[in-house]
Amino acid sequence: MTSKTIANGILRAVTIIVGIVLLGYFLFKIQSVLAYLAIAAVIALLGRPIVLFLRRKLKFPNTLAVIVTMVLMLAIFLGILALFIPLISEQSKNLSLLDIEALKADVNTLYLQILEYFGATTDNVTHLIEDSDLEKNVLEGLDLGFIPDFLNSFVNILSNFSIGLFSVLFISFFFLKDSKLFQNGMLTFVPDNKESNLVKSVDKINGLLSRYFAGILLQLFILFVIYTIALLVAGVENAIVIAFLCALFNIIPYIGPIIGGAIMITLTMTSFLGADFSTVILPKALYVFIGLIIGQLIDNFFSQPFIFSTSVKSHPLEIFLVIIIAGLVFGVVGMVVAVPGYTAIKVILKEFLAENSVVKKLTRNL
Prior knowledge:
Number of strands: 0
Radius of gyration: 27 Å
Order of helices and strands: HHHHHHHHHHHHHH
C-alpha cells in the first residue's frame, strides 16, 4: 500500500465525516421544517381513508375530497379546543372565589405539620433562609423589565404558531391530494436501478406508521378511560376534559406523563379550593394520584411494549435510547418524531444496505 493510497483513504474518510457533520448541522437548523413535514405526513396518513371514502363511495373529485377532509379535520381540532373553554371558565371562577386568608391558613398548617414530621422547627428554617440569602436574592431578582420581554415572547410564540399552522395545512393539502408526492420527490435523488427499493420502502413505512399511530390512539384512549374514572371517583368537575388533556400529553415520551400528571393533580386541587385541605383536597388529590400511577403502570408495562413490538417492531430499550438521543439533539419535537423517524430510517437501510452486518442486526424483525 503506497503513501498516496493511504492519503487518499484518509482524505476520503475526512470528507465523509465532514459531510455527515454538515448534514447533521443542516438538519438541526431546519428542524422546524422537518417537524412541519412530519406533522403533515401524520395528518395525511390519518386523513387518507376519509379522502378515499369520499372519492370512491360518494364520487367526489379528488381536490374537493381533500378540501372536505381538511375542513373536517380542522373542525375536529377546533372542537377539541372548544372543550377546554368550560374548564378554563370553571377554574377562573374557582380562583375568583378563593379566600386568600383561608388558603394561607391551610398552607401554614400544612407547613407546620411537615416541620413536625421531620422534627424541625420554624427557627431552623428561618436561619437556613437567612444563611442562604434567599430573600435578598429574590428581591434583587425582581425586575419589572421582564414585562416587555414577556410580551415579545408571547408575540413570537403566536407568530410562530400561525406560521406553523399555515405550513402544516399547506403541506398536508398536497400530501393528501397526491399520495405519491413525497415518494416522487424522493425518487429524483435515487438512481434508476434503486427506484424499486425506494417504492418498497415507502409502502412498508406507510404500513408500519399506520399501525404505530393506531397504537398511539389506543394508548391515549386507555389512559383517557383510566384518568376519567379516577377524576370521577374524586368528584372533579369537567373530569372528561381534564382526562383528555392529560392523556394527550403522553404523546411526548417520558416528559409528557409528568406534565400531564402535574396538571391533573393541580386542577383537581383547584377544583376544591375553599374546602378543608386535610379532609377534602388532600384525599381527592390522592385518589387522582393513585389513578395516575395505575394508568402509567399499565402504559409502561403493557401498552408501550405492545405498540413497539407489534407496530414498529423495535425493542423498548432500543426505542428508549433513540428517544433520549433525539430529545438531546432536537428537543421536545425530536422526542415526538423519534420513533416514526427511526422506523423510516430502519426500513430504508434494510432496502438499500441489506447485506451490511449492522443493518441486518438492527432490522432482523422487519
